[in-house]
Amino acid sequence: MHKVVPSRGEPRISRLVIGQSIIVILHAVGLVGLSLPEYQDWFLQLTPVQLLVSLILILFIHRGWNDAFPIFAAAAFWLGFGAELIGIHTGYLFGDYVYGPTLGPMLWDVPIIIGVNWFLLSYTTGVVFRKVPNDVYAALLGASAMTAIDYIIEPVAVELNFWAWKWDQIPMSNYAGWFLVSFLIHLIWRKANFEKENPLAVWLLMAMILFFTILNFTLFLN
After folding, report:
1. Domain membership flag for residue 140
2. What are the φ and ψ backbone dihedral angles of 8, each rounded to 5 degrees?
3. Cβ distance 50 to 34 under 8 Å?
4. In total, how many domains does the chain have?
5. Strands 97-99 and 163-165, how do they pair?
6. Coil, strand or helix: which one is 3?
7. d(CA 10, CA 38)
8. CA angle 102, 105, 107 (to 5 degrees)
9. pTM for this structure?
10. What is the residue-wise DSSP string for 27-79?
11. Where are the transmembrane segments (predicted)?
């Protein structure tokens, strides 16, 4: 009798399905909770948890564990966090804004979790454009995608007190700054030599885009 030997890829597929399911449930529940005024405050407190769970899932599926990967991860975190520090304390790069309490513990008036957000966005968009052969073109596409996502996030973030802009206006410098910092991180992503295929990354990216797109309708149509 022919004996079927499980392939080595099966555990990875199982992990992927688990990760996909958690991402869908996490964002669907958060979407409902933030859309209901009576539960909004409670769900806002879970925003850092949502980002941390997303980070754990991405790292759980990631396959390129070599010396280059943590260097990129640290660069994405600290370049993003450092850019926010400059923005908060000088008004350069993004414009005049301050963070609210929604994103959790802060370091020098910047939520620590914001560095995780920069990593997740650069990682997931980097995966999407990983097959573009030219590093500069790929970085331009990745930075453009991150800037477009920030455009979707901004109205929701302001409404939910993630951060607040001076005179309640989102300046164009914000998007210019986002593009420049994102471009730099994507160049590092391209130059770093590690496995860049992660099937969960696209799921997370699409979940985040749908999450904030739908919130733009539910929060501002009420």
Report:
1. yes
2. -70, -15
3. no
4. 1
5. antiparallel
6. coil
7. 43
8. 120
9. 0.89
10. HHHHHHHHHSHHHHHHHHTTHHHHHHHHHHHHHHH----STHHHHHHHHHHHH
11. 16-36, 42-61, 68-94, 106-129, 136-153, 173-189, 201-221
Q: Is 107 helix (H, G, I), strand (E, B) or coil?
A: strand
| Residue 39 included in any domain | yes
Per-residue tokens: 131 = 């097959």
Q: Read out DSSP for 198-210?
A: -HHHHHHHHHHHH
pLDDT digits (tens, 9 = 90+) for 131-149: 999 999 999 999 999 999 9
Q: Are 72 and 58 in contact (CB under 8 A)?
A: no
Single-letter code of the amino acid located at 122: S
The structure tokens listed for 200 are 């969960």
176 exposure class (CB count in 10 Å sphere: 0-12, 13-18, 19+): middle
Rg (CA), the chain: 18
Nearest to 83 by CA among 48, 102, 110, 123: 110
**Is residue 34 a part of any domain in this protein?**
yes
- Do the domain assignments include residue 104? yes
Number of alpha carbons in the 13 Å side-chain half-sphere of residue 211:
25
Which domain covers residue 154, as residue numbers? 14-220
Residue with structure tokens 């904030």? 212
pLDDT for 13 equals 55
pLDDT at 160: 87
Question: CB–CB of 57/20 below 8 Å?
Answer: no
Centre a 10 Å sphere on the Cβ of residue 104 and count the other Cβ atoms it contains: 17
